[in-house]
Please model this.
Amino acid sequence: MTQPIRKHLATKLFVATVTLAAAGSWVLQSTAQDGGLRAAFERYDKNKDGKVTAEELGQPVLFKALDGNNDGSITWEEARERFPKLKQLQPQPDPISSNKKPADNAPVVEVKRGPKILPAATEGVGRFVPDLEFKDVNGQSHRLSEFKNQQAIVIAVTSTSCPLSKKYLPTLARLEAQYRDRSVAFVYVNPTETDKLADIQAAITDNGLKGTYSHDGASALLASLGAKTTTECFVLDASRTLTYRGAVDDQYGIGYAVEAPRQNYLAKAIDATLKKQLPEVAATTAPGCELDLPEAAKPTTVTYHAQIARILSTHCIECHRDGGVAPFSLTSSDDVIAHAPMIRQVVERGIMPPWFAAKPEAGQPSHWINDRSVPEADKAALLSWLSSDRPLGNPTDAPPARDFSSGWMIGKPDAVYQFAKPVPIKATGVMSYQHVVIDTELTEDKWVQAIEIQPGVREVVHHVLVFLQVGDRRGDDADEEGRGGFWAAYVPGNSYRIFGDGYGKRLPKGAKLRFQMHYTPNGKAVEDATKIGVVFAKEPPRQEVKVAGIVNARLSIPPGADNHREEATLRLPFDVEILGFMPHMHLRGKACRYEVGTDEANARMLLDIPRYDFNWQLVYRPTEPIALSQGQTMRFTAWYDNSKNNPANPDPTKTVRWGNQTFDEMHLGYIEYVQPGMAPGESDNLRRAALGNRLGDAVFESVDANKDGFLTRDELTAVKDKYPKLKENPKLIDIMFERLDADTNGKLDKVELRKLREVISP
Model:
């Protein structure tokens, strides 16, 4: 764990509560009486010399405020006198808030990328565009001079295999219709040679494009313009002077989508050009699939057939194939060459293949059996080949093609459950979660050996969570927001689960499957009918696989905070073996980690994700199950970016709290586990323990009248009427103290109260 994080946590423990005020100052509210403060003082007095040094406390701002005589140490008398008087600290750079790398080994990588304004002069704005020839999809030749009677020409780069290009086609069609009667011509240029003519014709028809459409992979026009991506647009005035180049707007970008654009760059540029003025913003970046810029080819001994085809088969083809979840195929050399610039960009940036766990220490193997990272040797070979003249080599060196003909990664399912009625998906914007319930109609309990979810229209399905519902009541594995766990999950690249020998999941008699569907419109209105296939086990497993959540549903992210920290804990009521981790946050999620232990100095890191990406809800599976013991505490910590610098942020001016939609947030650390020694089918209370933590914390806050961090008998007696079981039997209060007051000090802290469920539940 990094030292800034330790310092931050030490400060939080010592001060007790730090709240960011609306004015931007830090307000300290003491919640500890002398006993609690004394305990904190002794905890930080590590050498037990009766003083706390700056190094022991680890927070310079607070240390300076408490060190009354400036002698370099804090005595107990200084702490007791000065701590209650600290009402407010002026804004200071908190170590974790100013640290742009909230977790260890965080690379400088943008997982979300929106348009950025560029200097117009350096991007060629104001120069003359020559009258170059280009051909439309029907083979007819055109020149820009044929539009000389128009007041403006819009040249839009596009592609039917680039996801962002496809999303922007409806917007471009709308703009074309909007300006058609205002002497504005639209020209669409598709430089991707492997885009199919049938797909292009369908895109023209479906979107009602009227402008000239050119499919020219070696377009001299785009080379003259210096086009960089498949979403870039150029505006020329009547004299063919470039007045704007850049993005259509900021509604879609790499790693995000919002309901409506906040900046309409292209429309404003057209308006300014028609008025014979320069746009206020004349150049931006245009996030999309990168184009192949001219560069000198570098020599290489790597060939496609001998090395590249094998690298792609290992790391990419599962998704990038016909019928796969990726937007284009990479199963042929033509496919790879056509998308070479985009492949190079995402591999160099480390965002493909998707894998976000911190790298192991140098020379150490990965801790994760499903690690998707490309080994450095393979990465170097791939980048070397992409930067060369891309030799194919000898076809006899090619590996055999992988077989995906069965349609199911798990083999032929024993049962398939599909939506009875397709879900309509709109063409643009964002959608709320959709919920669909399927009745399995099972007449007996079944044990499941393998599960696979197949979206009906893969390109619009972001992720799926499936919960169990038994009868009319949602069971332990399903609640309204998925806090307690899930039964099955799907994200691109993680669509199936095959359990090892002796492991399986229970599908009860009469169970219903409740699908939580997150759809991402991609530019075309479609209907989706997702299905799930299962393979039944031949015999009951030795271990039943379950999922629980470590949850903080009371999170509160201040407006504009770029590195806000939240945490949740779960004390294990029995021994467990962890089989996987699946962190879940929304658009403001930035980084997260799982740890075991509450002692900051000795906490054990289980999983560190220094850069979280909502677009990839990955499961991280350790090479060996992680054994944890009864009584240990797991902690899930997350950092959020609610600032205007987060391009996916729906609204940086609002305080963000828990909610089911992506414009809200979640703090949810799923764990997949088994309980050693428990027979399959027996119930456990790990999920109840997690719920008990939240129940205990909520009770604590509502009962702690003087906010001193402890509950007394008098405080519980004062509110007994709020709790039916206490009201019916006041003696439970005495029983509570006898059972929960572990240190017999006559008051309960939060940890002690978390056992409340064991006392008052039937």
Remarks:
- Confidence is low (pLDDT under 50) at residues 1-35, 87-108, 474-478, 757-762.
- Residues 25 and 90 are 5 Å apart (CA to CA).
